[in-house]
Amino acid sequence: METLAALGRGMIFREMELWFDPQARSGPESMAVDEWLLETRQLPMMRVYKWDGFWGSLGYFGKLDEAEQSFPGLRWVRRWTGGGVVDHREDWTYSLMIPKKFELARLKGGESYRAIHQVLVSVLASEGDLVPALAEGNQKAGSVCFENPVEFDVVGSVGEKLAGAAQRRSQLGLLHQGSVSVRGDFLLRGKLFAEQLAETWSEVEVFPDERKINQLVSSRYGTDGWLKRRC
């Protein structure tokens, strides 16, 4: 079984898949796709995707009323992962699905978070206009994700938050859902990220199981019971 130490140049995976989801999706559908991918992938995968309409997401333990007060007018979906409130209207959004047999899925939350974001720092720095770094541990958490950087978020030269993420571990592996607040090329940023995450990677087409996706939307992510469970 491969370990992070066995890989060269600071890379996390020996191989991985990259999927540019061609379909802009609603919040509930997008969350369902991520869960389905975690259930079905044999290799680590990064999904890069867009939102259908003006959406915000809140973490599993978040409060809907606080989210609505922070960003009035957005439609909301509750993530399976933790973390704070994220406005997705203009962000660059990605998810990583990592099967449990890979070491990253077995690391502690802070360790896996740092490993992924250290790579993202390098990606954003290569785009030329930013001086990104990892946030230090003295940051204060808050409900609005991009107002309050926490340890190992990606921040800019004056401490502004550039990227954050939330994670969920299950018996299947690790789901890492990330958001970058600064605009970037949808395809190019994804390919640069994949190049630095893995020694080899391949761009793939994925055809989600619509029956499973619809089931997850109708039973969980698209229901008031799920969205308002912690109001």
Mean pLDDT, all residues: 92
- The SSE string, one letter per element, is EHEEHEEEHEEEEHEHH
Secondary structural class: alpha/beta
CATH superfamily: Bira Bifunctional Protein, Domain 2
Describe the oligomeric state of these chains in a short phrase: single chain
CATH class value: Alpha Beta
Here the CATH topology equals BirA Bifunctional Protein, domain 2
Computed over alpha carbons, the radius of gyration is 17 Å
Percent strand equals 25-35%
The first-to-last residue Cα distance is 43 Å
Helix content: 25-40%
- What's the domain count? 1
Q: What's the helix count? A: 6
User: Major sheet, described briefly?
Assistant: 8 strands, mixed
User: Shape from CA axes?
Assistant: globular
Tally of DSSP β-strands: 11
Strand order of the largest sheet: 7-8-9-10-6-2-1-11
Describe this structure in words.
With 231 residues, the protein is α/β, with parallel strands linked by helices. It has one domain: 2-Layer Sandwich (BirA Bifunctional Protein, domain 2). 29% of the residues lie in helices and 26% in strands. The protein contains six helices and eleven strands. An eight-stranded mixed β-sheet has the order 7-8-9-10-6-2-1-11, sandwiched between helices. A three-stranded mixed β-sheet has the order 4-3-5, with helices on both faces. Strand 1 (13-20), helix 1 (27-40) and strand 2 form a beta-alpha-beta unit. Helix 1 (27-40) packs across helix 5 (210-221) and helix 3 packs across helix 4 (186-197). It is globular, with a radius of gyration of 17 Å. The mean pLDDT is 92.
